[in-house]
Amino acid sequence: DAKTTQPPSMDCAEGRAANLPCNHSTISGNEYVYWYRQIHSQGPQYIIHGLKNNETNEMASLIITEDRKSSTLILPHATLRDTAVYYCIVRVYNTDKLIFGTGTRLQVFP
Amino acid sequence: DAGVIQSPRHEVTEMGQEVTLRCKPISGHDYLFWYRQTMMRGLELLIYFNNNVPIDDSGMPEDRFSAKMPNASFSTLKIQPSEPRDSAVYFCASSFRTGDNEQFFGPGTRLTVL
Q1: Which residues of B fall within a CB distance of 8 Å from A43?
Q2: Which residues of A68-101 are buried (b: 16+ CB within 10 A; e: fewer)?
Q3: Which of B21, B41, B43, B109 to probe by mutation at the A interface, max A CB count within 10 Å?
Q4: What are the backbone angles phi and psi of residue B86, rounded to the nearest 5°?
Q5: Which residues pair with A109 in a beta bridge?
Q6: B111 and B48 Cβ atoms separated by less than 8 Å
Q7: Tens-place pLDDT, residues B56-106
Q8: Alpha carbon B20 to its chain's center
Q9: Nearest Cβ partner for B99 among A41, A91, A99
């Protein structure tokens, strides 16, 4: 079973920041948080991952709370092409398994 | 690099027929994963390999499903006999080294079993 909880859908205006929340209250101390997205009919695409510290790359920023029970993915300037389903995943400790939940469907509108 | 390659992209078959899905991972990647996606169950991990050896097949639904990786550049997922409930999109993904690395997904094979 997925160890994360996400809102089923969100809207965001083009050009604005999209903040996607995720709860993972049962996460263990050595389990990573991953974010992937899936644009309609394509394979999932990796975005970012982190353990304890906040992370940033060319696509997004990942903010993990100090107690690690929740995180937020931030797309700083959303575009129409960011419309997708975003999955927050906790990688099962000591394995290479990613258990996908139901994700958040982000709709970016003009 | 061409990315993960899957074939066929679409497959329509009749119940009871054998179906073989194929995957070519990214060159140099040590891990290969097979996933299935349906509206009802979402994206499920079926099996994954490390250096051509199956590591975890706990997600394989039943004995009708089998997966092989005869070499580092090729894997198959076979369903025999196929059933309508096997209709789904099947994704293959690969990654370099162990799990701290991203998985790269292929475009998927859309399987329809009539």
Answers
A1: 4, 91, 93, 105-108
A2: bebbbbbbeebeeebbbbbbbbbbbeeebbbbbb
A3: B43
A4: -80, -5
A5: A13
A6: no
A7: 999 998 899 999 999 999 999 999 999 999 999 999 999 987 656 789 999
A8: 10
A9: A91
